[in-house]
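Incident log, support desk, overnight shift.

02:14 A customer reports that sequence design results differ from what the structure should imply. Their input is reproduced verbatim below. On-call engineer (initials T.W.) acknowledged and began investigating.
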């Protein structure tokens, strides 16, 4: 059993490449053979017609659950599909064991439609602290990684988001209105203002990557599911960015956050977006 963060650091020094290999193999074995090849019986709805799950989601999560658990004995896996089947398994994020947070196919709607804007997300955390993350877009053959205190990388190249270009509208990806409460809708309306160009988000993982690369300025999201956010939050942090809730505190993967929240390419932009959300909420 891993007992402290120092031991997690040692694990990552020895096995980060093995985690990357597991993520790539899961995609190669279970996701890409089904890309643009899905049969009707391989696609189901969860909570509604916009909340889809496929055989690729289920089988890739099972693959990663076995592979990651074997790499780090004593760890647990919190995966989107396992939590859908048994919501109580989400509580492991708040437990003592190291936890792998897994979204096997982030952007399932895009995957089902044959678009390449989907990815596999894996993060390693303990006691609510994110230690490492992997964001893999297999259809684009892009892999972004982050290790706390060691930086963020895309295909081996260091990522640095940097501040937005002065005088240009902030480019902000936001939660789709269909997935927000009335209060959250009002808060997000704060971004419908001069100097901000807001648009609905695609895959959360790829939106975070766009922020870490400096291609987008911020995200503003209204849900807490850790599998959507954990990998990207660490990626943005290690690229020099920041994340804040409506009360000006960093987002907690353990939950209980005032929503919506933002992650941005630098601290000043995070404060600006959070203030706009708070002023309208």
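02:41 Re-run completed on a clean worker. Output:
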């Amino acid at each position: 059993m891993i007992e402290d963060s120092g031991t997690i650091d040692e694990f990552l020094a020895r096995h980060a490449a093995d985690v990357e290999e597991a993520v790539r193999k899961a995609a190669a074995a279970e996701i890409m053979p089904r890309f643009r090849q899905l049969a009707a019986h391989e696609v189901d709805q969860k909570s509604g017609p916009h909340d889809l799950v496929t055989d690729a989601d289920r089988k890739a999560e099972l693959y990663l659950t076995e592979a990651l658990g074997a790499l780090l004995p004593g760890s647990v896996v919190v995966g989107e599909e396992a939590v859908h089947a048994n919501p109580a398994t989400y509580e492991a994020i708040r437990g003592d064991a190291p936890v792998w947070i897994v979204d096997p196919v982030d952007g399932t709607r895009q995957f089902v439609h044959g678009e390449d804007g989907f990815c596999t997300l894996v993060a390693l955390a303990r006691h609510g602290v994110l230690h490492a993350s992997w964001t893999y877009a297999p259809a684009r053959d892009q892999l972004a990684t982050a290790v706390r205190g060691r930086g963020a990388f895309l295909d081996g190249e260091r990522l640095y988001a940097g501040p937005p270009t002065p005088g240009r509208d902030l480019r902000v990806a936001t939660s789709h209105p269909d997935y927000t409460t009335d209060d959250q809708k009002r808060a997000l309306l704060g971004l419908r203002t001069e100097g901000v160009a807001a648009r609905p988000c695609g895959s959360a993982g790829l939106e975070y990557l766009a922020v870490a690369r400096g291609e987008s300025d911020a995200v503003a999201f209204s849900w807490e599911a850790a599998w959507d956010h954990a990998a990207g939050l660490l990626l943005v942090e290690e690229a020099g960015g920041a994340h804040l809730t409506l009360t000006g505190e960093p987002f907690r993967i353990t939950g209980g956050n005032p929503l919506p929240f933002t992650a941005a390419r630098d601290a000043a932009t995070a404060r600006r977006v959070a203030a706009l959300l708070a002023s309208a909420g």
